[in-house]
Every structure is written in C-alpha cells, then in structure tokens.
Design a protein that fits this description.
InterPro entries: Methyltranfer_dom, SAM-dependent_MTases_sf. This is Methyltransferase domain-containing protein. The protein is of the alpha/beta class. The protein has one domain: Vaccinia Virus protein VP39 (Rossmann fold, 3-Layer(aba) Sandwich), CATH 3.40.50.150. The chain is 25% helix and 31% strand. A seven-stranded mixed beta sheet has the order 5-4-3-6-7-12-11, sandwiched between helices. Strands 1, 2, 8, 9 and 10 form a five-stranded antiparallel beta sheet that branches. The longest helix has 11 residues. The chain starts with a helix and ends with a strand.
C-alpha cells in the first residue's frame, strides 16, 4: 500500500499543501473528501461517534485510529488510550498531535494486552475485509478484553444502495462476493492511486448473529441517519 490516506492526514497535520482525497468503491462513483473532516472536534462528530466516546471507559484501544481524533478527545479527558493503525503516516500525524500512546500495528498482531473498551469507529467492521474473516477478527477482539470489557463498533447496512426490481426485491450483483456489504475501496491523492482495499460493511443482524456464534453478546446502542448504527459487544 502507498498509504495515500495517511499521507493526506500527515500533509494536513504538517500544513504540507494538503488536498482533498478522492475515494471510490465498486458500487459507488468517485467522490471528494475534505481531509479536514478527519480532524473534526467532538461537536462536529456524528452522534454515533459521540455516543461511543461517552461510553468508553477504563483502558481503551482505538483501532484504525487514522488522524487520532477519537484518541485525542479521550486523552484530553484524561483517559488511558492506546491508538493503533497500519498507516505509518497516520501514526506520525498522531504523534505530532501529541497522542502519547500510539503505534503502527495490525490489530491481529496485538497480543498480551487487555483492554476495558475497544473502539472500532467510522465503519469499524471495515477492517474485516470479507465476511469470511469476521470470526477471526471477533475471536481476536474477544481475546483482548478484560472481564466486563466492551467492544464498541459501528457499521452500515448498504442494502439501500441497490436498485429494487418490480417485485420490490433488491437486485444485488454478487460476482466474486459472498455478501453485499463486501466492497473494494480505492483512494486517490495528489494524482496517485493506492492499491485496492477490501472493506466490509455489516448490517446489524449479520453482526449480531456472528457475535452470538463467537460467544459475544451484541446490543444495538443507537442508530444514525444514514442506515448506520453503533453496537456494543461483550463476552457472554
């Protein structure tokens, strides 16, 4: 990966002529994203993110922290938070912002640590990549929880993006896919295009069923305005 999203984040943090990022998926057209959005304040966050931050407690792990916006807010509130991301540029920006405990790390490589709250926000199920990987990730997340701990994760049901047929059913092209929420995601920045990334959106019922199959309780905490939701997973 060229880490172009991370490069945009670091350019913004260092005022190195940042530009908008262009994102595209295999089911949606290209659209521009102002990188400043990833540096938003608590008041500018969607209510799902605000709710998750309000519920975070104890020792906190922020998975896929990006620009570190959630970790920064929690740290300012005095929380014990660790921020991880696979993007070296993003982690460098986090360090420059003053986030104290942050590292370039794949979630699956994190072992021998326990947390009271694990945050996976801004479509936290995305890092699963494909539906088939869900069990692997849920089992690993479960292994990182302290007794009484919680996983706060958000996602969206993408069924609304597909056309209806005459009978009211949805027409969903499923070539090379096991589930309609499996997307291929690409990022373009300053004329460069990153390697395609597999990214998973899970509807709540599918997440709930997967959680139960892996010994986790699943609670719907709140729903957003765009078919999105926040769920809390905990050990049964």
């Amino acid at each position: 990966m060229k880490d172009l999203l991370g490069k945009a984040i670091l350019d913004f943090q260092t005022n190195n002529h940042p530009q908008n990022v262009i994102t595209e998926t295999d089911i949606s057209e290209a659209e521009e994203m102002d990188i400043a959005y990833l540096f938003r304040s608590y008041k500018e966050m969607p209510k799902i993110e605000q709710k998750a931050l309000n519920l975070a407690k104890g020792r906190i792990l922020d998975v896929g922290c990006g620009a570190g916006t959630h970790s920064f807010y929690l740290q300012e509130k005095g929380a014990d938070v660790k921020a991880i991301d696979i993007s070296p540029n993003s982690i460098e920006a986090c360090k420059l912002r003053g986030i104290k405990n942050t590292s370039v790390q794949n979630l699956l490589d994190l072992t021998n640590e326990k947390f009271d709250t694990i945050l996976l926000l801004m479509n936290g199920t995305g890092i699963f990549g494909r539906l088939i990987n869900t069990t692997k990730y849920l089992q690993h997340l479960k292994s990182l929880l302290n007794p009484g701990g919680q996983i706060l994760i958000d996602s969206s049901d993408l069924i609304y993006m597909f056309d209806e047929d005459e009978d009211g059913g949805k027409w969903i092209p499923m070539e090379n896919k096991d589930y309609y929420g499996e997307l291929t995601f690409t990022v373009e920045y300053k004329g460069e295009i990153d390697d395609p990334l597999e990214w998973l959106y899970l509807d709540y019922n599918t997440l709930q069923n997967a959680a139960h199959s892996n010994g986790l309780e699943c609670e719907l905490i709140t729903e957003g305005d765009n078919y999105d939701y926040l769920a809390r997973l905990s050990i049964q």
